[in-house]
């Protein structure tokens, strides 16, 4: 539509229109007003439109077009991270990777060769090389030694246009360091080291330092020192100093110039960490000789012990020597030594030391209760050099004298069950002692020798405890509710101390298992809920039983005064027999009936002509029968002996060999038996005719001791307890029930 008559006008809009680009309104030519940089903006989007010059009416829609900026090689390569640093182990082979660098070019890589970069090394050959395309740097020389040269600087160039002439280029620096490897062993600078040490040097003190040099660095240069076993190195030790890599020689044992003046030993230095790649280079260790000369010094005296311990008994008289200390001058001059005490507390004045001999003695009496232990200090001084002195600690322990006797630890409650057996332990007791007991002190328990207890005894268990043991059974609370037992306890101290304590033992009612029921007075508990009439009936029945029992007892006493036979019936009809005593009705050989009848007449005449004390209760006929026919009687041999003794006494004839007693003893036995028979006839119901009370006397000189009831009769007198007879069988229970009844109290007139 533009006919060239200037009727059409062109307009330009969009990015860059005006300041960068302009359009000729008549011709439509577009011009750049400023220089363009592709690296800043590579293209512009614009809109153009043709409008009527006069009316301004668009002649066509807007047209959009893009102006692209064509690239030229106006930017050189750049290294954004330079300069660079890298490291590579020393002794690396050729071609070992070191690092990679990359350069950038702002030119368009898609247009021409403006952005094509090539790398090259300007400085750093022949040690390193670079890949021209990738920029990877590698070692170009093998076995580079860090100890010779440890750092390298490489100048690297990057050029665009593929490295062609006219291309732009830039450079960067790469600092390459060789890292250390353990390729060098430690080496001593000299083969022998001379050290000096005074003989007074303390154990553990440093004698001197030696060093082996290692060209490596870091952990590869760490050196470990050791004394080669043997020679004279046992007196010393060597420690590796991690900071200076030196070996510190220290004293391991005390030195004495007079004994040995010098020591020679070898020291070996080696690397701690080894690299197996370089072991072929040789052993990574070195050795040197160390000679230590001992210097003579004036030393203080030396005690024979590092400390002393002494014991002394309390209350030891003053001036008593309790021990001694000894010190010597080890120097060649061998000066004399003088001793003294160094006082710290007032208690040190309790002791004294002999200045020449070193003996320690007491100055006053010691009391363990005041101080159990004393610590004193003894000083030894050289005579030719008083400045040279040494001290030693002396511990004096005050030993306890056995002053206090042990005391029985009396239990809170001691009891014995009525059903206790013989030999049963009813209580365990122990002892306490106010003295300080040494290790292993023992207490001994026993009963007093002068007091014989027939009910209880003391059994020492051997572990500082003892048991109270019953010697009999059949305890009864209604006869005696408490017993007294003296116990003697003795210690093992020196001198031995003992004391006697009295133990009260109560009699208690116990269950079958031994559990305690009661030890107090037994109360009668009436059933709960009974009416008054029922209670009266119970009391009436009890009273009736008491009256019947009294009548029965009276009737039995009257029968005792009658003759043995009241009728002419055969006596065998009235005899209750036991097989172990007198036989039965079928056994006519055990007892002669005629003899029993003769007994009646003999007892009658005896009763009328003699006093009560002459009655024996057996009947001479029975005694004669037992004496003459002892071989036919099925009874224990003790009956035969008793019969022969009593018969001999009544006839006033010599005793048979079976009696085994003297004449004086027979009189005593006779009197005792007659007294017992008289008491039985007066106070007790007569025993059944088949029951025979026997007494036997063992006689003097028996090793086993007497087993007769004569010597032990006082047990029954004191306790009045016959229940133990029931242990012998059912037949003796009847006898025990009869003897258990207390005889009535007789006045002097009766």
Automatic annotation (TrEMBL):
Q: Which keywords does this Swiss-Prot/TrEMBL entry list? A: Calcium, Cell adhesion, Cell membrane, Glycoprotein, Membrane, Metal-binding, Repeat, Signal, Transmembrane, Transmembrane helix
Q: Which organism is it from?
A: Larimichthys crocea (Large yellow croaker)
The UniProt entry lists membrane topology as: Single-pass type I membrane protein
- Which InterPro entries does the entry link to? Cadherin, Cadherin-like_dom, Cadherin-like_sf, Cadherin_CS, Cadherin_Y-type_LIR, Catenin-bd_sf
Q: What does this protein do?
A: Cadherins are calcium-dependent cell adhesion proteins.
Every Cadherin domain range: 2-79, 80-188, 189-303, 304-408, 408-525
Q: Subcellular location, in the record's words?
A: Cell membrane
Its lineage reads: Eukaryota, Metazoa, Chordata, Craniata, Vertebrata
Note whether DNA-binding occurs among the keywords: no
- Disordered as annotated region, ranges: 597-617
Task: Identify one Gene Ontology CC term for this UniProt entry.
Answer: catenin complex
Q: What is this protein called?
A: Cadherin-12
Q: Where is the composition biased (Low complexity)?
A: 599-609
For this protein, the parts annotated as crossing the membrane are: 524-552
- PANTHER family annotated for this entry? CADHERIN-12, CADHERIN-23
Any one GO molecular function term: cadherin binding
Q: Which GO terms describe its biological process?
A: adherens junction organization; calcium-dependent cell-cell adhesion via plasma membrane cell adhesion molecules; cell migration; cell morphogenesis; cell-cell adhesion mediated by cadherin; cell-cell junction assembly; homophilic cell adhesion via plasma membrane adhesion molecules; morphogenesis of an epithelium
